[in-house]
Amino acid sequence: MTASGGPRIGVAGFFLEANRFAPVTHGEDFARAFDLGGDALQAQLLARPPRTLPDIAGFVDGMAAQGPWTPVALRAAAAYPGGPADQAWFDAFLHDLEARLRAALPLDGVFLSSHGAALTTEDDDPDGRLFARIRAIVGPGVPVIAVLDLHTNVSSRMTEALSAFVAYRTNPHVDLADRGREAAALMRRMLHDGPGEVAAVRLPFLPASTDQLIAPGTPYQALVDAGQQHVAGVGAPADGDILNVSLCGGFPLADAAKCGFSVVVTARHGRRDAARLLARRLAAEVWARRHDFPTRLTPLADAVALAVQAGAAAQRDGGGEDVRLILADVADNPGGGGGGNVTALLQALLQAGAQHVLLGVFCDPALASEAHARGVGASFAARFNRDAVANPAGHAFAEPLAREARVVALSDGDFVGRRGLLAGSAQRMGPSALLDLGGVRVAVISHRQQLLDPAQLEVLGVDLARDDMRTLVVKSRGHFRAAFDGFAPADRIVEVDGPGLTTPNLARLPLQRIPRPVYPLDLDAEWAPDPS
Predict the structure, then answer these.
(1) Could you give phi then psi for residue 81, rounded to 5 degrees?
(2) What is the pLDDT of residues 418-435, one digit of tens each?
(3) InterPro entries under this entry (predicted)?
(4) pLDDT tens digits for 314-338?
């Protein structure tokens, strides 16, 4: 079935990386970030720059490049990583999406933009529930293709509903648009050849977030490269059976039964056995290399000492670029559900008298609002975290901090990403301010997010090429690496072992739902491939 305007392809999305220990994600959190349906979503499919994630834009561009087609906008909602989604909101979202999907039938295919590590307050696999409902409505003969985050937690309910499973292959994630275009190519192929076959193997292996870097020389890069050698048209003949290999490190902070490193293979129509065989083979390779994923963090005091040294060098002799330093506050990463408002590292830098430091981005709507009310140039007693409350796990990481500050710059917080994950995407930080605390400047924002693009600082007047900072403190786990790679060399990027909801030190977390034993929490964990 093909319409005169080309195949009619439904476009939908549900994007949430859920940290079990973070506050509940409500409907207003989705509305603030992205939640559109029907005509409003249709407009964003065509907008440049769009507000959608780049995978949707890549899919739209990829479909258009291969011939006529008719995009049918359904509903797409995305929230910044946080706690489980409110169940009532998700039920309403799913009901609305189902109604839109039924009204749009018949469709030739469905494209989904998903993270894959969502939770709700009552369901540990809402992604699987969503995928299964879409499959039940469109039937078995319609290709349903999803692009998912590298950190997806994979369930059988998810893979059984899909015709193709396409996960990011980079970390930091800079290939979203490419994966969207890949999904478009698979959609075109499956419209001709029939829906593909998806097989997955999940391992009792939980690599920490900081261990999932994909870069030359890392074990993850080697595994990704090995997987690509089997993909038709990449490392195998174009007429081969394997259409995609996705190696998904997972998101342990979801603390769910489906957490774990997953190998997911998509094969062409009718070749499910080939997908299963390769998934088991590659899973064995991952398991054999599990010891190559160590967690190495720098104690907070040592990290602060490095910042003090960098600032002193700058004051003494101008300090060249060779002393530049990036401190990653990985335990307070909003990109993993952290609040972006833990003050431990900031407090330590101030107490140590560190100079030429810039910290970004610190989420404190009340403080940003006060700075806007006072105006550029004003000095005042800045109170960090005056409105903060303990998270559901009872941790009061967002300790208050008071410090005399001067307002250096103000912004509405709107920016268009230039590099990395958000490149080409219009984003909002809300009312934002750059405060000088006396040698340490802090970029304060209103909408919680991690620092992963220079544009977030540029809207506050910071020019990285000319600024005199020597230490950049990032509230981020790893995506900053794709955007600030020219600021400091790799050996001057330090992952700090501080407090927070996104600590890579999994032994500190009250994990209860992840099946045990699991490596590395249980060093004696065992696994063998299913011979069937």
Answers:
(1) -50, 135
(2) 987 788 888 999 999 999
(3) MlrC (IPR009197), MlrC_C (IPR010799), MlrC_N (IPR015995)
(4) 877 665 556 899 999 999 999 999 9
Cα–Cα distance for residue pair 455/222, rounded to 1 Å: 32
Q: Would you put residue 255 in left (φ > 0), alpha (ψ -120 to 50) or beta? A: left
Are the C-beta atoms of 119 and 18 separated by less than 8 Å?
yes
Helices (H) and strands (E) in the chain, counts: 13, 20
The pLDDT tens digits of the residues spanning 372-416 come to 999 999 999 999 999 876 555 545 578 899 999 999 999 999 999
Strand segments, DSSP code E, in 322-454 are: 325-328, 357-363, 379-384, 401-411, 414-416, 426-428, 432-436, 440-445
CA-CA distances (angstroms) from residue 135 to 90, 110, 142, 145?
18, 9, 8, 11
State the Cα angle at 234 between 277 and 268, rounded to 5°. Answer: 45
Alpha carbons within 13 angstroms on the beta-carbon side of residue 460 total: 31
Candidates 279, 131, 295; CA nearest to 203 is 279
The three-state secondary structure class of 497 is strand
Strands of 242-248's sheet, edge to edge? 197-202, 262-267, 242-248
Sheet strands (E) in 364-506: 379-384, 401-411, 414-416, 426-428, 432-436, 440-445, 471-474, 493-497
Q: Is 450 exposed, middle or buried (0-12, 13-18, 19+ CB in 10 A)?
A: buried
Structure tokens at 475: 């509230």
CB 331 within 8 A of CB 209: no
Number of neighbours of residue 366 by Cβ within 10 angstroms: 15
* Predicted model pTM: 0.91
Residue 118's nearest CA partner among 58, 242, 30 is 30
Report the SS3 class of residue 416: strand
Q: Show the DSSP H helices in 432-509 as ranges.
A: 455-458
The whole-angstrom separation of Cα 108 and Cα 105 is 9
Instruction: Copy the structure tokens of residue 296.
Output: 């190495």
- DSSP assignment of 154-219: --HHHHHH-SEEEE---BS---HHHHHHHHHHHHHHHHHH---EEEEEE-SB---GGG--BSTTSH
